[in-house]
Design a protein that fits this description.
alpha/beta, Amidase signature (AS) enzymes, 11-stranded mixed beta sheet
Amino acid sequence: MTVLESRKALIEGKITALELVNKTISEFEKDKESSLPLNAFLEIYKNVVKMAESADAEIAAAREKGEVEKLFEEKPLLGIPFAVKDNISVKGEHLTCASKILAGYTAPYNATVISRLEAAGAIPVGRCNQDEFAMGSSTEYSAYGATRNPVNREYVSGGSSGGSAAAVASGQAMFALGTETGGSVRLPASYCGVYGLKTTYGVLSRWGVVAFGSSLDQVGLFGKTPSDIALPLSVMSGVDFYDDTSVDFPAKEELKAETLSGLKPYTDFDKLKIAIPKQFMQNEGMDSEVLKVFEDTKEWFISKGAKVDIVDLPILDTSIAAYYVIALSEAASNLSRFDGIRYGSRQDPGEGYDELYIKTRSEGFGPEVKRRIVIGNYVLSEQFSGDCYKKAMSVRARMQSEISKLYETYDLIISPVCPTAAFKLGQKVDDPMAMYLSDMFTIFVNLSRTCAISVPAGFKSPDAEGTKLPVGVQFAGPMFSEKKLLNIAEAFEKDHPNQATGMEG
């Protein structure tokens, strides 16, 4: 069931919040006992049944008064369970960022996005697996094991929000929260065959989200339909006192009202101007079948009346280098707080502070996190900061300027999400450069602080095992164009029903 279908069933009394929650718990327990567990959820939260019972009691009381519709206007997500990435704080629940260094840590407060969803009646049902501290593209760099792809469990789910994507794709969650630094929502959405939205920087508060790269991090959403994303987005967005980078979302109320009555498919295609950067189409590592899905999507836009142009954006050739310099520098700074004194686990050999610090971090962090900390500190060192970090920031400023200028002429940039579909577990885990290049089409959105959505657009031909791997196409727009992107995605969904993994067809 979708979010809106479940909401309607709750209003009509055809289902209860407890039944929805118990379905997630049942699917989780059943999967845990399977021969190849997805490992999407790390844990179901302890208060989830109580929260569901409380929602049902609230609905029952409103029904007696004839005020059910009014109640759901005030709390539009009442009784709807959702999944949470393991770097987003839920008060009183474990928060580990899939790292041994935070083993046993309990969040003392809610992230703002959690508080706002709970105020709308939604129920955080459990925390999902991820790459350790959100550093990875496959959810194989987790202290708790890899998350498998629900389409074929021999393949990766993508990362770093792979657990959240897999939970939605497998039907264990109706929608889920992830985080994005360079593509960590859109990539697993593409690999798992669901919708994944990266929001404009500042639209969703980062308060209570464990930082990777503070100037890049954003909360994102997964759903099986654009509406599954739109309604939660509308209730979570807006300025937050606790996050100075948060901003108002102009379309918040409009999006909420529209979603409740059914997200409207975009219709003004004859006015739509679309850019395709030639730099993306010249990629030598592009899978021919991924390219075919993208070309089919391009032709769909043209058939609807949109104007599509190939544009030249040379600045995109620098995006990978600039991104990793900035992201890893910020990661090294942010992760310096995990020292064995203030948070999580402590390994104390009794030989002084320095040895405690070294041993705690050596044993607590996994190899990919260590690699990024070392590179980040190298970049920030006095000897190299001028050559690397400052140049990367200059590239970023230029990219923001050129992308903004492009959007003065064009409404949309479209591209594949990734040069390939999902790959097999273990195939790239020891090849960090291949992992980093997975994000080559997504990073410009993060550097320019704009928004984009991964849309399930097709499949690769069946492999030797008969698996049709999902392929996503990226629709990117200017700042605060989330509503327009969702409307366009809804139009695509209407013309291409059941592309999302697990949808009834």
